[in-house]
Amino acid sequence: MKQDYFQPRDLKSKTLAEIQSEFKELGLPKFRALQVYRWLHRGVEDFSQMSDLSKALREELSQKYEIAWAEVEQKRVSKDGTVKYLFRLPDGEHVESVLMHYHHGTSICISTQVGCKMNCSFCATGQSGFARNLSPSEILSQVQSASLDSGERISHIVLMGMGEPLDNYESVLRFLELVTSPEGLNVSMRHISLSTCGLVDKIYDLADRRLQLTLSVSLHAPNDEIRSRTMPVNKKWNMEALLRACKYYSDRTGRRISFEYAMIRGVNDMDWCAKELAGRLRGILAHVNLIPVNDVTGTGYQKSGLDRQKRFVSLLEAQGVTATVRRTLGSDIEASCGQLRRKAEGGTGYES
Ligand code: SAH
Question: Above 90 in pLDDT, residue 352?
Fold first, then answer.
């Protein structure tokens, strides 16, 4: 597999097997690789912290390799306990992560790119443009850094922060391999969700890998007319192509797909939208997650009212599609993605 999505010096992006083979070439005994891998995944920032290695070896490794890290630059804690982090990466770029507490454990929403190319009209991340992909180690570092800062073990991960995970596919696949490794954080693949705006070719590829992760698809519309207006990706892969890929995914993996639907007043929240949506989802193992849209500066979009949300759920359910309105956590700290980075870089942030 081509490896230009991370630098050869980036040790934390490498699998245990790769570190073993590189260490072998350096003439090091095999157990050293496991020792170092464990340190990396426990979240050390520097080789000097690897206390069971000789000083000479630590020196040698620091000449040859680097350890990526996500430094907490800003942190906001919500009344409900949700914590939003703004992380600074080694090159000075910023990404956001959000730590949330549920009865089933602690969950983190992490970023996969600095910015995003997808330009969905309602999304703050797209408004600040695309800077670069994250390396596997930078994706992992968000989990480690938040876990060390909060003192909590993170049991659930959602790839739903800044960026489009399937547009940084190789890094994301490798991150999944690293974070689920028994010698690393050992997070269960069943506790990981990946959210995509609908890169159809990658959905097929992912389906064939038959990973036990949950696929979330940002649908946000019942038809192409509305979807193309709000999500440019729909011009490349329309809803028919996307839903065919989703059906393939659920058939192949046996996993239910979670469809995200941000309710925007007067745009996609009318009764007929719910009916049309239910018709489109027939035959797919699906669950619809409704989210009242967050008002992003400049879009003019408003969230649907509570009655509308409830009505939408009941219309979907009447047609056999299960749906829930997602609980909003951290609304007092602007927990949705894209907001802090914009502020850090001089943007205006959100109105709500
Ligand atoms: N690129 C991926 C993941 C990042 S966005 C994707 O598109 O799925 C995470 C989720 O937040 C997506 O469902 C996205 O559509 C949604 N989202 C973005 N801006 C939003 C807003 N202003 N209000 C509500 N949801 C929003």
Answer: no
